[in-house]
């Protein structure tokens, strides 16, 4: 190979080169980047944001800027301030995670439940900007998981619809959205009397009849509904045990229940602390998080977007043709995470039928790994077909997907070099449904190296 055809710029003095600031070449002088921006894809997203948004829009909804002129941006205000208080016994790893991710994930109500495989909300914010989504538009996440897209859209004044097969994810998303606005006085009272609140929920977890509260409502697109209103009505809640005044309100009750499920899940994973010991610390942290974001939202007088999380199946979206302005989702990391197994305690608590649910969970269908892989591809084809149907022409569908070619090569019995990554498969499937690739970025995965190797941001446009 010859490189002589590439013309080089004339050699310059080292001091001359060092004097030219690369950031000044990329961004206008009135924009200041957020701290902790340390990956190439982040710089790329910041660059696109600065090109597609006005100064006013960066101030209101930009993800990667701390200042526009002398004004601190809303993103900076949401993320700064007192950091989340962690319980005394938290590991130094956890502490450092919260510190280094303050602007990426550690803000608003995103951190309320440790859900594996969720998006970095800051990245989602930037993607929505780059996709041209504006306040009043509607974005869809057909596999909403813990609701990152919906929460972020809500904060930006963008309306959102989320679809999710797991009733627990639906419950969690709704609770995290409600936490942006719910009344906090009953939560403070619940924290003061936390032992009886804990007993209230623990009493429920052993009760089979809890499953009676679930509803099978296919007509409305909901396979289950997490909690029936009468279950959380004041009278019922008080009868079961000593909840303070105001805790019968559905939003408040669900918030407390999410904290309970978080503590119960934690003690299942770790033998160091019982859920009883965990509950108080977790509820205290939840209250702190809700107080902080509500204070910021009141201060900036934010107009929140409307969010509609639904239970349903991404392969059969309950939406009209050409009805959404953008789609963002992350398919299940097919062979890496068994979402049902992970959430089995919480799903059972909510009365879900796990066997029935498994039949609709993409990535979990099939018996042998090869069968699972074939079904995964067929299911993703159906999802992309639906995405193409409901997206408006000219708009963007962004998929964030992790892939591990070594793992796939073992499953398929071919060498890793010959494996077609899930990213490539999705691009091909998209193209067969008129969703054409406009940009693909990659980002490094940290913390899941044994299951995931690379994560791709794939942007497809409906032709
Ligand atoms: C990678 S997770 C999404 C995480 C999400 N982006 C977040 O930030 O929390 C994929 C989700 O797809 C859901 N899922 C699996 N099969 C589905 C189906 N048929 N319809 C809708 N959601 C499904 C899983 O329950 C899981 O929550």
What does this structure look like?
It is a single chain. The protein is an alpha/beta fold. The protein has a domain of 80 residues. The chain contains 21 helices and ten strands. A seven-stranded mixed β-sheet has the order 6-5-4-7-8-10-9, with helices on both faces. α8 links the parallel β4 and β5. α7 crosses α8 and α14 crosses α15. The two termini are 38 Å apart. The relative contact order is 0.11.
Number of helices: 21
- Uncertain stretches: 208-239
Structural class, please?
Answer: alpha/beta
Could you tell me the mean pLDDT? 85
Helical content band? 40-55%
Give the termini separation.
Answer: 38 Å
How many strand elements?
Answer: 10
Strand order of the largest sheet: 6-5-4-7-8-10-9
SSE inventory with pairings:
Blueprint: H1 14-19, H2 22-26, E1 31-33, H3 40-52, H4 55-61, E2 65-68, E3 71-72, H5 74-79, H6 92-100, H7 121-130, E4 138-141, H8 148-156, E5 159-164, H9 167-178, H10 185-192, H11 194-205, H12 229-232, H13 234-240, H14 250-269, H15 275-300, E6 307-311, E7 324-329, H16 339-342, H17 344-349, H18 354-360, H19 369-390, E8 391-403, H20 405-412, H21 422-432, E9 435-444, E10 454-462
Parallel strand pairs: 4-5, 4-7, 5-6, 7-8
Antiparallel strand pairs: 1-2, 2-3, 8-10, 9-10
This protein binds S-adenosylmethionine (SAM).
